[in-house]
Amino acid sequence: MKRRFVFPLLLIATLSLSSFKAPKGSPVALNGKLHTTGTQLCNQNNSPLVLAGASLGWHNLWPRFYNADAVKWLANDWKCNVIRASMGVGLDDSYLENPSFALQCMTKVIDGAIKNGIYVIIDFHSHKLHTQEAKTFFAQMAAKYSGNPNVIYEIWNEPDYFFWKDVKQYSEEVISTIRAIDTDNLILVGSPHWDQDLDSVAANPILGQKNIMYSMHFYAGTHKKWLRDRTDTVMAKGIPIFISECAGMEASGDGPIDKAEWAAYQEWMKDRKLSWIAWSVSDKNETCSMLLPRASEKGNWTGDLLKEWGKITRESIRNANTK
User: Fold this and answer.
1) Distance of CA 207 to the CA centre of its chain
2) What is the pTM of this model?
Protein backbone atom coordinates (compact mmCIF):
# COMPACT_ATOMS: atom_id res chain seq x y z
CA MET A 1 0.00 0.00 0.00
CA LYS A 2 2.80 2.42 0.83
CA ARG A 3 4.26 2.17 -2.66
CA ARG A 4 1.55 4.32 -4.16
CA PHE A 5 2.88 7.33 -2.21
CA VAL A 6 6.48 7.11 -3.35
CA PHE A 7 6.11 9.02 -6.60
CA PRO A 8 4.08 11.92 -5.15
CA LEU A 9 6.62 12.32 -2.35
CA LEU A 10 9.49 12.35 -4.83
CA LEU A 11 7.59 14.81 -6.99
CA ILE A 12 7.00 17.14 -4.04
CA ALA A 13 10.69 16.99 -3.12
CA THR A 14 11.68 17.72 -6.70
CA LEU A 15 9.31 20.66 -7.01
CA SER A 16 10.45 22.17 -3.72
CA LEU A 17 14.11 22.00 -4.75
CA SER A 18 13.47 23.27 -8.25
CA SER A 19 11.60 26.29 -6.87
CA PHE A 20 14.09 26.97 -4.05
CA LYS A 21 15.32 30.55 -4.21
CA ALA A 22 19.06 30.97 -3.80
CA PRO A 23 20.11 33.04 -0.76
CA LYS A 24 20.53 36.73 -1.50
CA GLY A 25 24.06 37.57 -2.60
CA SER A 26 25.04 33.93 -3.13
CA PRO A 27 26.88 32.85 -6.31
CA VAL A 28 23.74 31.32 -7.83
CA ALA A 29 21.58 34.31 -6.89
CA LEU A 30 24.07 36.60 -8.61
CA ASN A 31 24.81 34.45 -11.68
CA GLY A 32 21.80 32.19 -12.23
CA LYS A 33 21.72 29.59 -14.96
CA LEU A 34 25.00 28.81 -16.70
CA HIS A 35 25.63 28.46 -20.41
CA THR A 36 28.49 28.50 -22.87
CA THR A 37 29.27 31.22 -25.38
CA GLY A 38 32.00 29.99 -27.67
CA THR A 39 34.60 28.48 -25.35
CA GLN A 40 33.60 30.62 -22.36
CA LEU A 41 31.39 29.69 -19.43
CA CYS A 42 28.89 32.51 -18.89
CA ASN A 43 26.23 33.49 -16.39
CA GLN A 44 22.60 34.43 -16.96
CA ASN A 45 23.67 37.90 -18.13
CA ASN A 46 26.06 36.41 -20.70
CA SER A 47 29.05 37.68 -18.71
CA PRO A 48 32.10 35.39 -18.39
CA LEU A 49 32.08 33.44 -15.13
CA VAL A 50 34.86 31.53 -13.41
CA LEU A 51 33.94 28.82 -10.92
CA ALA A 52 36.53 27.75 -8.35
CA GLY A 53 35.96 25.17 -5.65
CA ALA A 54 36.82 21.83 -4.12
CA SER A 55 35.92 18.24 -4.88
CA LEU A 56 34.83 15.80 -2.23
CA GLY A 57 36.59 12.43 -2.37
CA TRP A 58 34.84 9.23 -3.44
CA HIS A 59 31.52 8.98 -1.58
CA ASN A 60 32.11 5.32 -0.72
CA LEU A 61 35.53 6.01 0.80
CA TRP A 62 34.78 9.27 2.64
CA PRO A 63 31.01 9.32 3.18
CA ARG A 64 31.39 11.26 6.42
CA PHE A 65 32.05 14.47 4.48
CA TYR A 66 28.87 14.07 2.41
CA ASN A 67 26.65 16.29 4.53
CA ALA A 68 25.10 19.76 4.46
CA ASP A 69 27.32 21.16 7.22
CA ALA A 70 30.53 20.38 5.31
CA VAL A 71 29.03 22.00 2.21
CA LYS A 72 28.09 25.09 4.21
CA TRP A 73 31.64 25.41 5.55
CA LEU A 74 33.14 25.11 2.07
CA ALA A 75 30.75 27.78 0.81
CA ASN A 76 31.16 30.23 3.68
CA ASP A 77 34.73 29.79 4.91
CA TRP A 78 36.57 28.55 1.81
CA LYS A 79 34.38 30.76 -0.42
CA CYS A 80 33.73 27.96 -2.90
CA ASN A 81 31.22 29.00 -5.52
CA VAL A 82 31.11 25.38 -6.69
CA ILE A 83 31.73 21.97 -5.18
CA ARG A 84 32.04 18.57 -6.79
CA ALA A 85 30.30 15.48 -5.42
CA SER A 86 32.28 12.45 -6.62
CA MET A 87 30.07 9.40 -6.69
CA GLY A 88 32.39 6.40 -6.65
CA VAL A 89 31.25 3.90 -9.27
CA GLY A 90 33.87 1.24 -8.50
CA LEU A 91 35.49 -0.23 -5.36
CA ASP A 92 33.64 -1.56 -2.31
CA ASP A 93 30.24 -0.09 -1.41
CA SER A 94 30.19 1.88 -4.66
CA TYR A 95 27.25 2.88 -6.83
CA LEU A 96 27.43 -0.46 -8.62
CA GLU A 97 27.21 -2.36 -5.32
CA ASN A 98 25.01 -0.06 -3.25
CA PRO A 99 23.15 2.49 -5.38
CA SER A 100 20.76 3.56 -2.63
CA PHE A 101 23.66 4.60 -0.38
CA ALA A 102 25.29 6.45 -3.28
CA LEU A 103 22.10 8.39 -4.00
CA GLN A 104 21.70 9.18 -0.31
CA CYS A 105 25.21 10.64 -0.11
CA MET A 106 24.91 12.58 -3.35
CA THR A 107 21.52 14.04 -2.47
CA LYS A 108 22.80 15.43 0.84
CA VAL A 109 25.58 17.31 -0.92
CA ILE A 110 23.51 18.50 -3.87
CA ASP A 111 20.70 19.73 -1.64
CA GLY A 112 23.25 21.39 0.65
CA ALA A 113 24.77 23.24 -2.30
CA ILE A 114 21.34 24.40 -3.44
CA LYS A 115 20.47 25.72 0.02
CA ASN A 116 23.77 27.61 0.20
CA GLY A 117 23.40 29.08 -3.28
CA ILE A 118 26.50 27.52 -4.85
CA TYR A 119 26.94 25.35 -7.92
CA VAL A 120 27.42 21.60 -7.64
CA ILE A 121 28.94 19.10 -10.04
CA ILE A 122 27.27 15.69 -10.05
CA ASP A 123 30.26 13.53 -10.91
CA PHE A 124 29.96 9.94 -12.17
CA HIS A 125 33.38 9.11 -10.76
CA SER A 126 34.55 6.21 -12.87
CA HIS A 127 37.55 5.25 -14.98
CA LYS A 128 35.68 2.41 -16.71
CA LEU A 129 32.79 2.23 -19.16
CA HIS A 130 29.35 1.77 -17.58
CA THR A 131 26.93 3.14 -20.15
CA GLN A 132 23.63 1.75 -18.92
CA GLU A 133 24.41 2.46 -15.28
CA ALA A 134 25.32 6.05 -16.13
CA LYS A 135 22.13 6.53 -18.12
CA THR A 136 20.05 5.20 -15.24
CA PHE A 137 21.83 7.42 -12.71
CA PHE A 138 21.66 10.62 -14.73
CA ALA A 139 18.02 10.02 -15.63
CA GLN A 140 17.31 9.97 -11.89
CA MET A 141 19.39 13.07 -11.24
CA ALA A 142 17.86 15.00 -14.14
CA ALA A 143 14.34 14.06 -13.05
CA LYS A 144 15.06 15.33 -9.55
CA TYR A 145 17.05 18.48 -10.37
CA SER A 146 15.99 19.55 -13.86
CA GLY A 147 15.56 23.30 -14.08
CA ASN A 148 17.72 23.94 -11.05
CA PRO A 149 20.46 26.44 -11.96
CA ASN A 150 22.92 25.02 -9.40
CA VAL A 151 23.39 21.68 -11.11
CA ILE A 152 26.21 20.63 -13.45
CA TYR A 153 26.44 17.06 -14.76
CA GLU A 154 29.87 15.43 -15.16
CA ILE A 155 29.12 12.26 -17.05
CA TRP A 156 32.46 10.40 -16.87
CA ASN A 157 35.19 11.44 -14.48
CA GLU A 158 38.31 10.07 -16.18
CA PRO A 159 38.18 7.59 -19.04
CA ASP A 160 41.51 5.80 -18.82
CA TYR A 161 42.56 3.45 -21.63
CA PHE A 162 39.72 4.17 -24.07
CA PHE A 163 39.71 5.68 -27.54
CA TRP A 164 37.75 8.88 -28.16
CA LYS A 165 35.33 7.07 -30.47
CA ASP A 166 34.21 4.95 -27.50
CA VAL A 167 34.08 7.89 -25.10
CA LYS A 168 32.19 9.95 -27.66
CA GLN A 169 29.58 7.24 -28.25
CA TYR A 170 29.06 6.84 -24.50
CA SER A 171 28.85 10.61 -24.03
CA GLU A 172 26.31 11.08 -26.80
CA GLU A 173 24.08 8.40 -25.28
CA VAL A 174 24.27 9.83 -21.76
CA ILE A 175 23.82 13.41 -22.98
CA SER A 176 20.69 12.35 -24.89
CA THR A 177 19.34 10.71 -21.73
CA ILE A 178 19.87 13.91 -19.74
CA ARG A 179 18.56 16.21 -22.46
CA ALA A 180 15.33 14.25 -22.73
CA ILE A 181 14.61 15.55 -19.22
CA ASP A 182 16.86 18.57 -18.62
CA THR A 183 17.33 20.57 -21.80
CA ASP A 184 19.69 23.29 -20.59
CA ASN A 185 21.98 22.57 -17.66
CA LEU A 186 25.72 22.39 -18.23
CA ILE A 187 27.23 18.97 -19.02
CA LEU A 188 30.93 18.12 -18.66
CA VAL A 189 32.34 15.49 -21.02
CA GLY A 190 35.49 13.47 -20.29
CA SER A 191 38.24 12.58 -22.73
CA PRO A 192 40.66 9.64 -23.01
CA HIS A 193 43.72 9.17 -20.81
CA TRP A 194 42.44 10.85 -17.68
CA ASP A 195 40.94 13.87 -19.46
CA GLN A 196 44.13 14.88 -21.23
CA ASP A 197 43.75 13.52 -24.77
CA LEU A 198 42.04 16.70 -25.90
CA ASP A 199 43.49 16.54 -29.41
CA SER A 200 41.17 13.68 -30.33
CA VAL A 201 38.21 15.68 -29.06
CA ALA A 202 39.15 18.69 -31.16
CA ALA A 203 39.44 16.48 -34.25
CA ASN A 204 35.95 15.06 -33.84
CA PRO A 205 33.84 16.98 -31.31
CA ILE A 206 30.29 16.19 -30.28
CA LEU A 207 27.87 18.07 -32.54
CA GLY A 208 24.29 19.18 -32.18
CA GLN A 209 24.39 19.75 -28.42
CA LYS A 210 24.46 23.02 -26.49
CA ASN A 211 25.96 23.83 -23.12
CA ILE A 212 28.58 21.12 -23.05
CA MET A 213 32.21 21.56 -22.03
CA TYR A 214 35.10 19.12 -22.00
CA SER A 215 36.95 18.22 -18.81
CA MET A 216 40.69 18.66 -18.46
CA HIS A 217 42.48 17.30 -15.38
CA PHE A 218 45.98 18.16 -14.24
CA TYR A 219 48.33 17.38 -11.38
CA ALA A 220 50.97 20.08 -11.46
CA GLY A 221 53.78 17.87 -10.19
CA THR A 222 53.42 15.65 -13.28
CA HIS A 223 51.66 17.68 -15.96
CA LYS A 224 53.73 20.68 -16.92
CA LYS A 225 53.56 23.37 -19.58
CA TRP A 226 52.94 20.81 -22.33
CA LEU A 227 49.39 20.24 -21.05
CA ARG A 228 48.71 23.95 -20.81
CA ASP A 229 49.94 24.34 -24.39
CA ARG A 230 47.77 21.44 -25.57
CA THR A 231 44.74 22.96 -23.88
CA ASP A 232 45.43 26.35 -25.45
CA THR A 233 45.59 24.67 -28.86
CA VAL A 234 42.22 22.95 -28.56
CA MET A 235 40.54 26.05 -27.15
CA ALA A 236 41.81 27.96 -30.17
CA LYS A 237 39.89 25.39 -32.23
CA GLY A 238 36.67 26.19 -30.37
CA ILE A 239 36.68 23.46 -27.70
CA PRO A 240 35.32 24.76 -24.36
CA ILE A 241 37.32 23.51 -21.37
CA PHE A 242 36.36 23.07 -17.71
CA ILE A 243 39.07 21.86 -15.28
CA SER A 244 36.92 19.61 -13.12
CA GLU A 245 39.84 18.13 -11.17
CA CYS A 246 43.31 19.42 -10.40
CA ALA A 247 45.97 19.49 -7.72
CA GLY A 248 49.55 20.53 -7.09
CA MET A 249 51.35 17.24 -6.56
CA GLU A 250 52.10 14.20 -8.73
CA ALA A 251 49.38 12.42 -10.69
CA SER A 252 49.43 9.62 -8.11
CA GLY A 253 47.98 12.09 -5.63
CA ASP A 254 51.15 11.79 -3.58
CA GLY A 255 54.65 13.22 -3.59
CA PRO A 256 55.71 16.82 -2.99
CA ILE A 257 53.59 19.79 -3.97
CA ASP A 258 55.12 21.63 -6.92
CA LYS A 259 54.28 25.14 -5.77
CA ALA A 260 55.91 26.82 -8.76
CA GLU A 261 53.87 24.78 -11.26
CA TRP A 262 50.70 25.25 -9.21
CA ALA A 263 51.28 29.01 -9.32
CA ALA A 264 51.87 28.81 -13.08
CA TYR A 265 48.60 26.94 -13.53
CA GLN A 266 46.75 29.44 -11.33
CA GLU A 267 47.98 32.35 -13.44
CA TRP A 268 47.21 30.49 -16.67
CA MET A 269 43.67 29.64 -15.56
CA LYS A 270 43.05 33.20 -14.40
CA ASP A 271 44.25 34.65 -17.72
CA ARG A 272 41.94 32.34 -19.69
CA LYS A 273 38.96 32.56 -17.32
CA LEU A 274 38.98 28.79 -16.81
CA SER A 275 36.92 27.21 -14.05
CA TRP A 276 38.66 24.71 -11.79
CA ILE A 277 38.02 22.22 -8.99
CA ALA A 278 40.75 21.09 -6.57
CA TRP A 279 41.04 17.47 -5.38
CA SER A 280 40.11 16.47 -2.61
CA VAL A 281 38.17 16.96 0.63
CA SER A 282 39.22 13.73 2.34
CA ASP A 283 41.53 12.51 5.11
CA LYS A 284 43.60 9.82 3.42
CA ASN A 285 47.31 9.57 4.18
CA GLU A 286 48.40 11.12 0.89
CA THR A 287 49.39 14.57 -0.28
CA CYS A 288 46.18 15.40 -2.16
CA SER A 289 43.89 14.79 0.82
CA MET A 290 43.20 18.17 2.38
CA LEU A 291 42.20 17.22 5.93
CA LEU A 292 43.71 15.45 8.91
CA PRO A 293 41.86 12.37 10.21
CA ARG A 294 40.81 14.25 13.36
CA ALA A 295 38.99 16.91 11.34
CA SER A 296 35.25 17.00 11.97
CA GLU A 297 32.96 15.77 9.23
CA LYS A 298 30.88 18.94 9.63
CA GLY A 299 33.42 21.64 8.83
CA ASN A 300 34.86 24.11 11.34
CA TRP A 301 38.26 23.22 9.91
CA THR A 302 40.74 25.51 11.61
CA GLY A 303 44.27 25.76 10.26
CA ASP A 304 45.59 23.02 12.54
CA LEU A 305 43.13 20.58 10.94
CA LEU A 306 44.23 21.32 7.37
CA LYS A 307 47.12 19.54 5.71
CA GLU A 308 49.46 21.61 3.54
CA TRP A 309 47.41 20.99 0.40
CA GLY A 310 44.23 21.96 2.24
CA LYS A 311 45.76 25.28 3.26
CA ILE A 312 46.99 25.98 -0.28
CA THR A 313 43.64 25.04 -1.79
CA ARG A 314 41.63 27.18 0.62
CA GLU A 315 43.86 30.18 -0.06
CA SER A 316 43.70 29.64 -3.84
CA ILE A 317 39.90 29.39 -3.85
CA ARG A 318 39.46 32.43 -1.64
CA ASN A 319 41.82 34.42 -3.86
CA ALA A 320 39.90 33.36 -6.97
CA ASN A 321 36.43 34.08 -5.59
CA THR A 322 36.93 37.06 -3.28
CA LYS A 323 36.88 40.35 -5.12
Assistant:
1) 23
2) 0.94
